[in-house]
Design goal:
The protein has 316 residues and is an alpha/beta fold. The protein is built from eleven helices and nine strands. It has helices spanning 39-50, 56-59, 65-69, 104-115, 135-148, 167-173, 190-193, 199-212, 230-242, 269-281, 299-315; strands at residues 76-78, 82-83, 93-94, 119-124, 153-157, 178-180, 217-224, 247-252, 286-289. The longest helix has 17 residues, at 299-315. The protein starts with 38 loop residues before the first helix and ends with a helix. The structure holds iron/sulfur cluster. Iron/sulfur cluster is lined by residues 56-57, 62, 64-65, 68, 73, 75, 294, 296-297.
Amino acid sequence: MVTVLDSAARPRHPEKAHRPDTPVLRKPDWIRVKAPGSPVYNETRKIVRDNGLVTVCEEAGCPNIGECWSKRHATFMIMGDTCTRACAFCNVRTGLPEALDGGEPEKVASAVAQLKLNHVVITSVDRDDLADGGARHFAEVIGSIRARTPQTTIEVLTPDFLRKDGAVETVVAAKPDVFNHNLETVPGLYLSVRPGARYFHSLRLLQKVKELDAAMFTKSGMMVGLGETREQVLQVMDDMRAASVDFLTIGQYLQPSRKHHPIDRFVTPEEFKSYETIAYSKGFLLVSSSPLTRSSHHAGDDFQRLRAARLAKLGS
Ligand code: SF4
């Protein structure tokens, strides 16, 4: 899955082809994952395929896929497998996407029902080509899941909807339980890591979700090991708290290929623990900070903890 070229006819990352090769560093001992292939993993894979769906687990080459899919936890990536941005860290295919599949909301709802998910994470590629950035499609997916399995809680992990007026309002109006948008990295690295995005726009999006619906949980995440300093990470935490973000995730950046942004270093488990401690002291309701933390990793269990943390805070 982690490839730069799928075929000569259809390069996976055409914009990265000219980039210099950077050797992919060997992972340290603390980054070890469960191998894919258990019976439940295969069952999950079949349900995804039978419904004709795309997952970020596969497209991003996520290291946790063996563990997550063995628990039926697949994260659906809607609106196709092709992204209109070309972030330097991301393994998702870039190019001109196909037209939206009007049947996708039903397909996602059917897969959620078959997987018997208590909590589902829905993410998407960036769709800068659509007038609303795909916001209405997000809302339709939420609506279909609600209609089919009303007991399933829903978390969206959205693009930044840059220059898409009204998009965030559309998604919030569909009432997901958690609204996640990742800042990904510190502002000083946006130009090299996330050149198509704007740090303060992303931050403002998170703040706006809270303004629109103060009860909606907000979540945001960042990768470390890209070249950021500790002080910069702490500043991002402060920025997120200023935008009232409830839940912070921090994980190690892993380089998908030699053409992607190089890893600066592997952050140690002790440093992740220290980030967690500091983040709690800054007021986040929940923090997940570890080398293999990803936005959707353990999202269902974390949602329960998030709710409990809010109740405990309200009761204190
Ligand atoms: S961490 Fe998220 S993206 Fe990775 S395999 Fe698990 S559900 Fe999929």
